Amino acid sequence: MNGKYLRIGAVFFWLLTIGVLSLLPGKTFEDLGYDFFGADKFVHAALYFLLAFSLIKAVPFSGKTGPALLLALAASLGWGGMMELLQAQSFIIGRSADWRDLTANLFGSLCALVPSLMKRGRVR
Known about the structure:
Structural class: mainly alpha
């Protein structure tokens, strides 16, 4: 299988995984004993790191990394914002929008830029 299709598949995998986890009723995680010691924000950051990283790898660019990195960051943050807006709707029981979640999403997405910038010699 072509590497391009694997990279695109990874993007869709993380989009779907984040979408499903974000839209499950809040009670699902409480029943599992989730959110011990603020792990929720770490999980947000980790998932959005993986999404942004897979987006960076999937976006073709010709020498200029800036547009590709900005596109990956914007797409990742857009997805996170949409998930928070959907959680704010009353039809999802036990869910609500949270700026701290969006901040953790931003942090994870920004962290995904570092390996790409290091590879290109822009961060030492």
